[in-house]
Protein: beta-N-acetylhexosaminidase
Organism: Biomphalaria glabrata
Amino acid sequence: MGNVYKMSPLKGFGTIRPGKSKFIRYINEHSNVAVTDVHPNWYFVSPDLEPRIIENTRGDSLDFVTPYKTPAMWKRNTNTEDPDFDIMNPFSAAKRYRVHKVEDLGAAQHLVIPTPLSIQTYNKQSAVNVLTNSWVIFAAPRLANEGKFLSDIWGMTMVLKAQDSHYIQFLEEKVELSLAGRALPIEENYELRVTPTNNIITIKASHPAGAFYAIQTLLSLIDKDGSIPETVISDGPRYKYRGVLIDVARNFHSKEKIFRYLDVMAMYKLNKLHFHLTDDEGWRLAIPGLEELTEIGASRCHDPTETKCLLPFLGSGPFSGPPGTGFYTVEDYRDILRYAAARHIEVIPEIDLPGHSHAAIKSMLARFKKMEMLNVTEATRYLLNDLQDQSDYLSVQSFADDAMNPCLRSTYTFISRVINALYAMHRDISPLRMFHFGGDEVPAGTWQKSPVCERLKLSGVTTDLKTYMVTQIANMTSLYNLDLAAWEDGITFEGKPMKRDNFPNKNIYVYAWNNVWEWGTHKHAYEFANSGYKVILTPATNLYFDHPYEPDPMESGLYWATRYSDTKKVFVTLPENLYMNADTYRSGREINICEGGNTEEDCPRLEKPDNIEGIQGSLFGELLRSQAITDYMLLPKMLALAERAWHEAYWEKETDKVKLQEGMNEDWTKFANTLGHKELARLDRLGYKYRIPPPGAIVDGKVLKTTVEFPGLGVEFSDNGGETWRWVISGETEVENGKNLILRTRSPFGTRYSRQITLFEDYNQASPSSLASLMYVAMGVNFTLLANFLNGVY
C-alpha cells in the first residue's frame, strides 16, 4: 500500500540469534539510483507487541545505506546496446570543474534579484545613510501598512507629514510601465528614488503591492553600514503569477516553518503560495464538522486497518509524530493567511481530488463505520467510496484505494463542505479567489466496477465520469464566484483539453507540469493556452524542485522527469519558448524537440501568449522530512525562479541555438556571481540552510585549480583525511600530491560546508558488480544496493 512495504519470515527462515546476522536477498520492481530512494525508520512488529524501530535506521540520516560506488548501482539501465542506456554518472571533480567553470567577476553583478525592469541611475559615489540621524517614514494612507512594515525593520518612526530631510516617503501615484510594447498591470509597479542631495528616499506606487516590492529592492541595496547609493529604479513584473508550491501533505511543516518560506518568497517578489494541503499520505487542514480528516487523515502510525491513523508512509515510523503527523487548526491556517497577506502573497489551497485522496477516503470511511449503527443516513453523508466497488487499479504511488467516487452524491456534499470551510477561513483576511482541486494522476481502471457508477450511467449521464466530475466542481465553485484551478491532466480528456466553454467559471487555471520529453507531452501547455485556459507553467524537467541538483546518488531528490535539475536549469527556463528547453532524455542522451520534420500537431505554436499567466517552482514533499532538507531543495533554485518570473531576459526570444546559448551563459555568469558574492550571504544572515555546491577541481602539474558554481564562495582542501583544512587562494594553490586530496566549498561566513568530494575519484571507470540487493539484520540494518536491472530484465 502506498510505499509501505513489509517482509515476513516464511517457514524455514530460522532464527537470528543475538550477535549474529542473516543475509537476505530480494528483488525490487523499480530501480534505486539514489540513497534517498530508501526510507528511514524501519521497524519490527509482532501481534500484541509494540513496534520497535531498528535503531540505526532511526531519524533522517540514512547512514545505514551503504555508499553507491558502481555504475550498476546508480544507473537505471546498464545495457550499453540499448538506445535507452543510462549514460549519466555522478560528477567527478574534473567534470564539475568543466560544468561549473564560471568566471569570477569579483563582485555581484546585479543590484537586485530579481533584475529590475529599468535602472535609470545608480551612483555609488553619492549615497544616503539611513542608520544615521533621525530618519522617519511618511506614507500615504493607502500605503501606511507598507510604511509600517519598513519602520519595523529599520526602527524608524512613522510621521503624519514629511520633514525637510532624512525621510522616506511613500506616495500613492500611478507608475505606468511597458515590456516589449505591452503595458504592465500597474498593481505591482513601483518607482524608487534615493536622493542624497537632500537625504530623501521616495517610493511611488499606486497599490500597496508595488510599494512592498520597492521596500524589498531597498533592502537589497543597503550595505552593512546602512549606506544606499543614489538610485532611480522603475520596476514591475513580467508575470502576474510568480509561485512556489510547498507540499505539506506528504510531510508536515508547522506554521512557523511556513512563515520562514513566506519571508524568503517575499524577499524575492514571489507572490503565490500554492499550498498542497492534501494527498494520499495526509490531510493537513481542520474542516469543522469533519474532525476525522485530522484525527485519522493527519496522523501516521502502525495501524494496518487505518482506522486510527494512516499507515506510516514515506518512512515516518510506527509512532505518531512529526513529520508524518500534524495539521493546521482553523486559526493556524488563518495565521498563515494573515502572514502571507502582509507580504502580498496569495495562498492558493489545493485539495487534491479525485485521485491522491487516500487520506480523505480512509477518514470518511472511519466516520461511516463509527456512525453506521446509529444513523445510516448521517454515516453516508460524506462517504467518498462506493463500498461495493470491485474496481482493480493501482496509482502511480501504488495506492489501490485513492480515488473519490464521482458517482456518489456524498462526494459532492463533501467537496461543498470543504469549499465552504475554505471560503469562510479566507473571507475577512484574503478572500478565496480560486479553488484548486488537483485532478492529477487518476489511475486507469477506477470506478469501472462501481455499481453506483453503473446506475448513474443508466440514469442518462452520457459524458465520461471525469468530465462529469469536473463539470460538477466547476458549477459548484461558480456559485461562490470562484475561479477553478487544476493540474493539466485534471482537465484533459482523451489527450486533449476539455472544451473551455463547458465550464461557467470566469477563469480556469491549468498548471502545466508534464513535459517529460520522451513522453511526447511537451505540447500540452500551449494547447491549453490556445484553448482559452489560463496557464501556469511548472514544467517538471526545469521547475520541479524535488529533483536533485546533480546526478549523484548522494544528492536528495526524485528523478522521474529528469535525472537532475540544478539552479542554472531553472535560470535558463524559457517560459514562452518551451520547446527550446529540451536538452536531454532522462538517460542523459541529447534530444532535439520540434526541429526538422515535426508537425504543427507535434509542436503547436503559442498563439495566445497572454494566457501564460506565470510560472511556478514546485517542491513536492516525499523526501522533506526536516527543515534543513527543505531549505536545501528550495534554495538557491528559488532565486533563479524569481529571476525568470519577474524579469524577461534579452536572450529569451532568440531562435538561433548558438546565440541563445551564448546569451544564457553570459547572463548566468552575472547571476551566479551575484549569488556567490551577495545573495547567499543574505540568506545566511537569515538562517536559511541553502545548498552549498561542491567544488570542481583538477591538478595541472603541481597546481590545484578549483571552481565553484557560485563564484565568491571559497574552496578548502585537506591532504590528511579532513583533520586540517587549507584555503585555496584565488582558485589555485600549489600541492605536492593530489592523489589523497579531499575538497569542500564553504559558505560566505565559514559556518557551513558542502559535501566533501575526492579529487581523483573517476565514476566513469568503476566496474559494475553482480546483481543483488542485500540487507544485513543485526543490532541494526545495513542496506546495500549492488545493481539495478539490466534493461528491465533480471
Q: What stands out?
A: The first strand starts at residue 22 and ends at 25.
